[in-house]
Fold:
Amino acid sequence: MNMKNNIEEIIIPVNLAPIVLFVYNRLNHTQQTIEALKQNIFAKESELFIYSDAPNNEESKKKVMEVRKYIKTISGFKNVVIIEREKNWGLAKSIIDGVTNIVNDYGKIIVLEDDLITSPYFLKYMNDSLSFYQDKKEVWEIGGYVYPIDIEKEKNTYFMPFTTSWGWATWDDRWIHFERDPIKLVDTFSKKDIKRFNFDNCENVWNQVLRNYNGELYTWAIFWYAIIFLNKGLTVYPYKSMVKNIGHDGSGENCGTTNEYSTKLLREEIIVNNKNIKVDEKIYDDVKKYFKKKKISIVGRILNKLRRLFK
Structure:
């Protein structure tokens, strides 16, 4: 595919969604995220809002200042607006506040964090989907990241009953329902709900709700998933990932070291025209198989480690 010729043929929409990027203290990751985003179709025509959280300790102060110095040099977008937090908000509070403010002003939003590499067609896919599904109220989110499973190209796009926080988009009339209320969820969810929420018990994401409930965590994404779940909403995904997470290298505040979520980027345009808005059960089963395989892999690594220790 000749990407240059393809770009020249693409008509640029007048009303593009704003991009909101949340950064902290990882300069190298932030630079990679920005450089990939700048290569996107529609980047030059898009507004970019960057939320920079303040350091939470003296050790982070220098790194945060390095990131802030860099983001002030960013060009290649229609406009760059930087919001520097004067105190440390933490990622969850910063995202909830930033998304709420921007989506309320613009009616729609594209959200990224500082460790996400995007396909050159990511922004086009997001904007096309936001336009195509705006009036389809059962669609609550546009997802960019896809788990490393094989999906037929003919699917193009498909719908799932779960969300992703690694490159996503939504509208103000969906986000208005967001609330971070672990007590309410614990009181509301039945055993049947929890089973389905946990991908039919192939994964244990409900544990995140419980850890928030117990005060062990303060996160946001699990509550966005829960709100959409309770409203029987759907997320539309591309058949192959348009986002690569580079944050599982031990550098993040909330991520460990793993390559289990590693994906190859889709470097071609996605045609957004799927009107069959219902869960693709075949792909959903493949996602559950992926989680089962991942769980077996984790158990195997733990057992091997124990064997080495006892030797």
